[in-house]
From TrEMBL:
<dbReference type="InterPro" id="IPR015943">
    <property type="entry name" value="WD40/YVTN_repeat-like_dom_sf"/>
</dbReference>
<dbReference type="InterPro" id="IPR036322">
    <property type="entry name" value="WD40_repeat_dom_sf"/>
</dbReference>
<dbReference type="InterPro" id="IPR001680">
    <property type="entry name" value="WD40_rpt"/>
</dbReference>
<dbReference type="Pfam" id="PF17829">
    <property type="entry name" value="GH115_C"/>
</dbReference>
<dbReference type="Pfam" id="PF00400">
    <property type="entry name" value="WD40"/>
</dbReference>
<protein>
    <submittedName>
        <fullName>WD40 repeat protein</fullName>
    </submittedName>
</protein>
<dbReference type="InterPro" id="IPR041437">
    <property type="entry name" value="GH115_C"/>
</dbReference>
<feature type="domain" description="Gylcosyl hydrolase 115 C-terminal">
    <location>
        <begin position="360"/>
        <end position="530"/>
    </location>
</feature>
């Protein structure tokens, strides 16, 4: 018993320190390839900018002393150093925010405050052009066809011809700064983001402003257009990232990040408006979206099909902010930030399953182990366990099982904080019939301290289906649909179509074999329950 209590105490201590969650977060979705020191000042400096060249064999990363360093991706060795400014520098005037390559990898651009944007010949290392000297430059990018360069100056974004550097267009955010720019992959659209809630999408053929979008908060820190040309993303204050439809500028989804416990450490950026989502990026196939910032050092991966959080990885030390994200052509994700390092991860997209299909208004039967996502968070995780008594010979169980007393109750879930949140299982279902569904669960536990869980929808808790209890004899499967509120567990599906159903443990040790969702309030499954529904609807 003494040893058991010691193990519990050790696990809780590791969880609170952030060590345990790092171990369990390093799954096959992210493989660490390189960790490269960029700023010799370490946490007193930062890595604020990053970019891959077109070939994907070079990563450029900038520091807080005016230096941009080019490294080989395969071994992390230094190839070249570019000094943006001359003379003494400090964190106040040495922060290099901008790096970008031309499509032929022959030139790059760097940018920082008071010295504008500088274009460099990468073969000779010489500066070719200084655009906007004396201006603050937080964003700059070459068009994909190398005809133009867009530069975010103090109060406006200007587009210059790369043939003669004449200004061809200018867009302003009145009395505020422009912080970021991006182009669609075909070069037909330009996006810019800045202060005063400014997000703009411009048509390149005639430099016409198509969409003038208002971000929910004052400052936009970064923008990113999806490679397939469908979405425009912007991120900024209060832990927000917003996705917009490029065709009409309408809001698609707002992705929130928990910022309640975020605090800047010595050496970190703190402009008085923190914590922000500082960096965003897309996967090469546009099926996944990545966010970073908010002083937790974490990169979050979101599935575009339903905008669910499906994975995460530590991209900087915990409590250090991610400042920049970049994706190579072969899905290598770079993350730099206030630790002063650039991390290179191979992103391995998860297996995408077809949707679970409902035919007519039949009950929907789901094997618990047939999930779409198993998101490990906090001190706990879900594991698939072989069990001959389970309907599909497998079950899911929440570990570690500390539930010999009330320490097994997991107090928080669905709070968007990977350090404290409860682990989550996702099940993507195509509902053919709207209505109020009763939720039955086939579950069991080793003791009465580990027999409850929550069901939510589209990543959010649902009050009518939380605290579901499977009350029965220990180590015996039982069907139950009641919650601790002495009411049947229900969810309401308002329209036909795809919905993501979520499961979070309320108590560790809970074991779940199967779920059944039914419109019939008199229905009760028996024995192993109905055969699981097939996955027949293709994911678009």
């Amino acid at each position: 018993m003494k040893d058991s209590n010691m193990i519990k105490s050790l696990i809780i201590s590791l969880c609170l320190s952030g060590i345990l969650i790092q171990v369990h977060a390093q799954n096959e979705m992210f493989t660490l390839l390189q960790k490269i020191k960029v700023d010799n000042q370490g946490t007193a400096g930062a890595c604020d900018g990053s970019a891959f060249n077109t070939k994907g064999d070079i990563i450029a990363a900038s520091d807080n002393t005016g230096l941009t360093k080019l490294f080989k991706v395969d071994d992390g060795s230094l190839i070249r150093t570019i000094r943006h400014n001359e003379g003494e520098v400090s964190a106040a005037n040495g922060e290099t925010n901008v790096i970008h390559f031309t499509s032929d990898d022959k030139f790059s651009v760097t940018g920082m405050n008071k010295t504008g944007a500088k274009i460099w010949n990468l073969e000779t290392g010489e500066m070719v052009k200084n655009i906007g000297h004396g201006q603050n430059t937080d964003g700059a990018a070459f068009s994909p066809d190398d005809k133009w360069i867009a530069v975010a100056h103090d109060r406006f974004c200007a587009v210059y011809s790369l043939w003669d550097y004449d200004k061809v267009a200018e867009f302003s955010v009145p009395k505020q700064e422009v912080n970021a720019v991006d182009w669609t992959e075909d070069g037909s659209l330009l996006m810019l983001g800045g202060d005063a809630k400014g997000v703009m999408i411009v048509r390149v053929s005639d430099w016409k402003l198509l969409h003038d979008i208002k971000f929910p908060k004052h400052r936009v820190k970064s923008v990113a257009l999806s490679p397939d040309g469908k979405y425009a993303a912007a991120c900024g204050q209060d832990g927000l990232a917003c996705i917009y439809d490029i065709s009409d500028g309408s809001l698609v989804v707002t992705l929130s990040h928990n910022t309640k416990t975020a605090k800047a450490l010595p050496g970190d950026d703190d402009d008085g408006d923190e914590p922000n989502v500082e960096a965003i990026e897309w996967s090469t196939d546009s099926k996944y979206f990545f966010t970073g910032g908010t002083y937790d050092g974490i990169i979050r991966a979101w599935r575009v099909a339903d905008w669910s959080l499906i994975g995460w990885v530590q991209g900087q030390e915990y409590s250090r902010q991610v400042e920049t994200l970049s994706m190579s052509s072969d899905n290598i994700l770079a993350a730099g930030g206030d630790e002063g390092y650039i991390y290179l991860f191979q992103f391995n997209p998860p297996v995408v399953k077809n949707l679970i299909r409902q035919t007519s208004d039949e009950p929907i039967s789901i094997e618990a182990e047939d999930f779409d996502t198993n998101l490990q968070q906090g001190c706990h995780w879900w594991s698939v366990i072989n069990d001959k008594t389970a309907s599909g010979q497998e079950k899911v169980q929440c570990f570690p099982d500390l539930s010999k007393d009330k320490t097994g109750v997991i107090s928080e879930y669905g709070i968007l904080d990977t350090k404290k949140d409860s682990p989550k299982l996702d099940y993507r279902i195509h509902f053919s019939t709207p209505g109020v569904y009763y939720i039955w669960a086939r579950g069991q536990s080793y003791d009465h301290y580990g027999n409850s869980f929550h069901v939510g929808m589209n990543g959010k808790p649902v009050e009518s289906s939380d605290k579901i209890e499977c009350l029965g004899e220990n180590n015996t499967w039982i069907w139950d649909k009641d919650t601790k509120d002495n009411a049947p567990a229900t969810i309401e599906i308002k329209e036909a179509g795809p919905v993501t159903i979520n499961i979070w443990p309320r108590e560790d040790g809970i074991q779940i074999d199967k779920l059944v969702l039914t419109l019939d309030d008199a229905y009760q499954p028996e024995n192993e329950g109905p055969e699981a529904n097939m996955r027949l609807v293709r994911v678009k």
